[in-house]
Design a protein that fits this description.
Number of strands: 10
Number of helices: 9
Structural class: alpha/beta
Strand content: 15-25%
Distance between the termini: 35 Å
Radius of gyration: 18 Å
Length: 231
């Protein structure tokens, strides 16, 4: 099912307006200058900030649902793992919230630990993880909830430069395996090139260009797009 978005997010300096569609199995990158409203769009889709307009997944109106009923997995820039929980219990969190007991929740988490190569880290706490390991835990936790839509806010920003290429390749593989629509906010052209099928550019709350990265590079609509694409 496709994710269809046509929303306005009110902010003090300016409103953020964005309209786009992300088919199942595709990844949309949202880029733009700092403060352009990129993360506001993600937060509105997830139901974390007030917005007007439409957010639909297929025929389902997500906008009418509370945040925890939208079926959305969200990976934050700083991952926001629960510091008092082990890796296993972080990944098992969604099953616990849905009403399962601890043993059943952990059993549901175990296949995700295997898939993300986290089994040997299962008893560690977040403060004992590297940046790349923490990102894998955050992504496993989001996917363990079996979301219909996946949102990632600056997924590489907290990682050391030395490991970004390897982690980016790993994240690309997991996004391709996800199968649903995904949206990635980033400031990095390399992230867009590796992760995203299309790019939507926001500047001061308005969409100024939308298309494949090569299309943007061939005919940048603004000076910022030209700098971002290396023109």
């Amino acid at each position: 099912m496709s994710l269809s978005v046509d929303l306005t997010v009110p902010r003090e300096a300016f409103d953020v307006r964005a309209a786009f569609e992300v088919p199942a199995g595709r990844v949309l990158g949202i880029v733009g200058p700092n403060g352009a409203g990129k993360s506001s769009v993600l937060a509105a889709i997830a139901g974390l900030v007030d917005a007007t307009g439409a957010i639909r997944l297929g025929d389902t109106d997500l906008h009418a649902r509370l945040a925890d009923r939208r079926g959305i997995g969200l990976v934050f820039q700083d991952f926001l793992l629960f510091p008092h929980l082990t890796v296993r219990d972080n990944v098992a969190f969604a099953a616990r919230v849905s009403g399962g007991g601890r043993a059943a929740a952990r059993a549901k988490a175990d296949p995700w630990l295997t898939r993300f190569d986290l089994t040997e880290l299962a008893q560690r706490h977040p403060n004992a993880l590297s940046g790349g390991q923490a990102q894998r835990v955050a992504l496993a936790r989001a996917l363990a909830a079996e979301p219909a839509v996946l949102l990632l806010d600056e997924p590489m920003a907290s990682l050391d430069v030395e490991i970004r290429d390897a982690v980016r390749a790993d994240l690309t593989r997991h996004l391709r395996e996800f199968g649903g629509p995904a949206v990635v906010v980033t400031h990095d052209r390399e992230d867009v090139a590796a992760l995203c099928d299309e790019v939507l550019v926001l500047e001061r709350g308005a969409v100024v260009q939308h298309g494949a990265l090569a299309e943007l590079a061939a005919a940048p609509a603004t000076p910022w797009v030209a700098r971002f694409t290396g023109r």
